[in-house]
Amino acid sequence: MPNSNDSLGGETLDGENSKNAAQQNQSEQSLGADATMGGDADENSLVDQSTLGAADIDDDLFDDELELVDLSTRYTEESVLGKGGMGEVILATDTRLERKVAIKRILGTAANSITAVQRFLTEAKSMADLNHTNIVQIYDYGRATDGPFLIMECVQGGSLLEKCKEGPLEVDEAVNIFSQLCDGLAKAHAAGIIHRDIKPANVLLTEDGIPKLTDFGLAKTKIADTSMTMEGAVIGTLDFMPPEQRQAVELIDHRSDLWSLAATFYQMLTGKSPRVINIAALPPQFQSVVAKALEESKENRFQSAREMRAEILQAYSGNMDTSHTLGEARAADLPVDSSDSDTTVASDFQQIASGKQVGIVREFWDFLRHNKKWWLTPIILSLLLIALIAITAGSGAAPFIYTLF
């Protein structure tokens, strides 16, 4: 069970031993959170940097000896989407492809930090490998005259953090967002990428409400450079760190991301930071599932994003009012990842839209298929169909018998 008395702060740490964090912070430069598009930076975030002079940045950090480029020859900058201590995100137009993009760049002392540049390149390479609806897409990266830059998909609907600050989300919306984030996270984990800093501030929303994971600057990849972190170091954002991540970076695996996503779901449903977790504050149908997702031991949690999503969706559908379902229109509006069509968000919500009856019928159908007394089947099925017709007529629901086969 999660520790409800956990009162660690919300700052982001990197390269700090948790026991010495307070002492080290006195001598380190606080640069704040990465800039996020259309939203507030995580105001309690702290990032330590190894700052060197501009001439000390090693060209070997950049692949193919990237030459300095003048972004103004291709991009017309329009406005600032977000700004933080490390840099900024600019809304711009790609004049060659005639589309809106976001230019993310690190500036000032951070642009002269080996750690910051390494993180920046990690983010570029991690996100470039992930082509998924629920992950912000990277179009390009390089070095401009004022520092490293990323050319990213432009997401202008604000951050999930902003939305959570307005209060708890409606259950339908929270489950919808959570389900899609699980899908994106499953894609990252399948590629061997662990985000390590999942939180509402690192989830951007399109104007249509589609959530997208961003800020893979702390991500661990299959070929991650371990020189970026020391043994025993702590990285991430404390409010959203699982217990093992607070101990040492080498203890982190994909299940650590699942804990952080569950903590994000907690904030969506309660409107409160998971700094102090009160399971009783959650809607009753989700309490046991979220409690499992936030277990202290990794072995006692869900073992994959798809498993966790399935349990949340089951809890949701099992407790929903079947007279007011999400319906076909809602499912049609959700993104479909063609590479995983058998486990897409849309198909999950279509199953939910059928209400409790489909789950009951499917379980009963499985029982019949595995029961040796098949002579009872015609009789039982006839009675079942009569009952289903009566239920359907009473609720005004659309026919759903076809979903059995």
Give an overview in words.
The chain is of the alpha+beta class. It folds into 3 domains: 132 residues, Phosphorylase Kinase, domain 1 (2-Layer Sandwich); 193 residues, Orthogonal Bundle (Transferase(Phosphotransferase), domain 1); 45 residues, no CATH class. The protein has 12 helices and 10 strands. A 6-stranded mixed beta sheet has the order 2-6-7-5-4-3, covered by helices on one side. A hairpin with a 3-residue loop joins strand 3 and strand 4. Helix 4 packs antiparallel against helix 6. The longest helix is centred in the middle third of the chain and has 20 residues. It is globular, with a radius of gyration of 24 Å. It starts with 11 loop residues before the first strand and ends in a 10-residue tail after the last helix.
Rough outline: globular
Number of strands: 10
Give the proportion of residues in helices.
25-40%
> What is the correct CATH architecture of the largest domain?
Orthogonal Bundle
Beta-strand residue fraction: 5-15%
CA-atom Rg in angstroms: 24 Å
Q: How many distinct domains? A: 3
Return the structural class.
Answer: alpha+beta
Strand order of the largest sheet: 2-6-7-5-4-3
Secondary structure topology:
Layout: E1 12-16, H1 21-25, E2 68-69, E3 75-83, E4 87-94, E5 99-106, H2 114-128, E6 138-144, E7 147-153, H3 160-165, H4 171-190, E8 203-205, E9 211-213, E10 234-237, H5 243-247, H6 254-270, H7 287-293, H8 305-318, H9 327-333, H10 345-353, H11 356-370, H12 377-395
Any descriptors?
405 residues, alpha+beta, Phosphorylase Kinase, domain 1, Transferase(Phosphotransferase), domain 1, 3 domains, six-stranded mixed β-sheet, two-stranded antiparallel ribbon, 12 helices, 10 strands, disordered C terminus
